Amino acid sequence: MPKPRLAWAVTGSGHYIEACLDFLLTLDDVDLYLSQAGEEVLKMYGINLDDLRKRIPVYRDKAASAPPVGHFYKGYYHTFVMAPTTSNTVAKCVLGIADSLVTNLYSQAGKCKVPSIVYPCDIAPEMETTAPGGKVMVYPRKIDLEGTAKLRTFEYTSVVDSVDELIKHVTERLQSLK
Q1: Which residue spans within the chain are E strands per DSSP?
Q2: 69: burial class by Cβ within 10 Å (0-12, 13-18, 19+)?
Q3: SS3 call for 64
Q4: pLDDT digits (tens, 9 = 90+) for 38-70
Q5: Which CATH superfamily is domain 5-176 in?
């Protein structure tokens, strides 16, 4: 069996997406999964999908049954990262809805006791985020913050509040596997 890899998913959030991808591209043995909205967001931020494909394997949300989730049952992945993650994806994960590639990956990771690290876009009542034109202030709704809070209670899930925390958690996870 090949050495287990890290699975990383990008959803439709642009919340510090460039910093997340910059870190992702420093890692070895990683596969990138894109939701349909994640693919759209890459374009909005001027991130070329073909350039990413030259550096890492990229899987897109194009099949109804999300076949790649079976990799978790075979021990192909040691960790699942969702960064950045929309409040929509967080809400689906909290409710156990697995109707897309990314929500299926999260569900199956949990069922296989594979740790997940999630960087939600909605983490505080008032916050700065990145938009295609630069940084902006946003004011997440109570329901979105409640979803993030609920996700923090899930087994095998670590929720991080910044890119620095994301880097720290992923790095610590990779170190623990050595």
Answers
A1: 5-10, 30-34, 58-60, 77-85, 116-120, 127-131, 134-138, 157-159
A2: buried
A3: coil
A4: 999 999 999 999 999 999 999 987 765 567 778
A5: Flavin prenyltransferase-like (3.40.50.1950)
Both tokens of 107, joined, read: 């569900």
Q: Which amino acid is at 132?
A: P
Domain boundaries, the chain: 5-176
Tokens representing residue 151 in the block: 């996700």
* pTM: predicted TM-score of the whole model, two decimal places: 0.94
Q: Which residues of 105-138 are buried (b: 16+ CB within 10 A; e: fewer)?
A: bbbbbbebebbbbbbbbbbeeeeebbeeeeeeee
CA–CA distance, 167 with 87 (Å, rounded to integer): 21
